[in-house]
Amino acid sequence: MHGEQFKIGLVLSGGGARGFAHLGLIQALNEAGIFPDIISGTSAGALAGVLYADGYTPNEILHMMNSGSRLDFMRPALPREGLLQLGGIIKILKTNLRAKTFEDLKLPLYVAATDLNNGKVEYFSKGALIDPVIASASIPVLFQPVLINNTHYVDGGVLDNLPVRPIANKCRFLIGSFVNPVGYMEKISGLISIAERTFMLSMSKEIIEKAKIFDLLVAPQELRNFKILDPDRAEDLFSVGYKATMQKLKDIKIKKLLEL
Question: What are phi and psi for residue 45, nearest 5 degrees?
C-alpha cells in the first residue's frame, strides 16, 4: 500500500530523445488538473523532471530543449571515454536552471545514476544539481562518465530505467511514463547505432517488472518509430506522449482512482 506523504508521484524513464514524450504526458496531466507532488527520473526523465521541478511548464521545456540542432546536443568527442559530448544539454541546464541545489527546486526530485565504481544505482536528492542530472543522462560508451566525489557515474538506466523505488512508499497515487519500447530494427550498423540499440534493449525489461506498481502507466508503443538519438522530432514526440496520456485518462477506473 502506498504511503500518504505525497498525493501524486511521477516516475519518468530514460529513452534519449524519446523523453520529449514525457513533456506531452505532463502537459496532458496538467490540463486534467493533475499535478505531481514529487518526481523521480532517469536520464531523459531526469532532464524533463529537473526542469519541471524548477517551475517550467512542459511547453517551455519543449521550446528550451528544441531550440538547437542535433549537433548542439551531441557533438563528436575523442573516443577515449565516450563517442559524443553533452555540451549542448549542459549549457541549457546552466543557462536556465534557477535552482542550484535539489533543495532549491519547487518540487522534490530524485535522480537515478549508475555508480560505475561500486556497481550500484544511486538516487540523488540533495546537494548540487547539475552534475547528477548530467550523470543520469550519460549513456555508457556514447557519453563519458561524470565524476562526482571521486566516483564515476553513468546513465541511471543501466540499473534502473524506471526509478520508482525512491518514492514508491511515499505516494498515494503513482504515475509512470515509460518511453523506451523496443521492436524490430532491420538496419544496425556503426558503433553508435550498436551501442544505442544494445542500451535500449537493456532498459526495456523495466516495463515488465514494474508495470503493476503504478496506478497509471503510460508507455506508447508508437515510440518504437523514433530513435533515442534523434532530437529533431521533438514536437512529434511531445504529441505522442500527450495523446497517449489523454487516452489513458478517459479510462473510468483511472478517473475513479484520481477522484479518491
Answer: -65, -30
Catalytic residue among 13, 43, 136, 177: 43
Distance CA 233, CA 212 (A): 31
Angle between helices 87-96 and 58-65 (to 10 degrees): 140
Q: Is 69 a catalytic residue?
A: no
| pTM of full prediction above 0.90 | no
Q: Using an 8 Å Cβ cutoff, are 214 and 176 in contact? A: yes
Catalytic residue status for 155: yes
Q: What is the pLDDT of residues 65-108, one digit of tens each?
A: 886 544 344 444 444 444 455 667 888 999 999 999 999 999 99
Instruction: Check: CB of residue 207 under 8 Å from CB of residue 219.
Output: yes
What mean pLDDT value characterizes the chain? 85
C-alpha cell at 121: 544505482
Query: 155, 160, 177, 215: which one is catalytic?
Result: 155
